[in-house]
Protein: Lipoprotein
Organism: Halomarina salina
Amino acid sequence: MKRRALLALIGTAATAGCSGASGLTGDDSEDMIAVSSEYNCIELQDPPCTASVTVDSLGNATQLVAEVTNASGPSEKHILSTEGAELEVDGLRREQNLKIYAETDDTRYLFTEVPTDEQRQRENTESTSSAES
């Protein structure tokens, strides 16, 4: 509540969300891939959003590839190849997602997206409530 009051006081609406994703890609817990992510938007910025990802566990993936699709050009790709690797992408528009692909020796698949559905819902709820204030 104090955060919202402070943001209203300075005239800035911000939204945030933390989330994690994990999944097994094999038969053992050592194969677990896990990432933590945050998604923040500041209404007075253009473009307003920032997404960040931390690799908690690579499991049996050789690397994770974070990809931002740009409407006006080629996709922006970032390789996350170690546990503890961090990535922050600024300047995202609300309709853009940061897609995280897991790669093994012989396959590549979409692992998760930032914002997650939960982060997007929280961001929309906070954005609506700050607009009503």
Observations:
- The chain has two helices and eight strands.
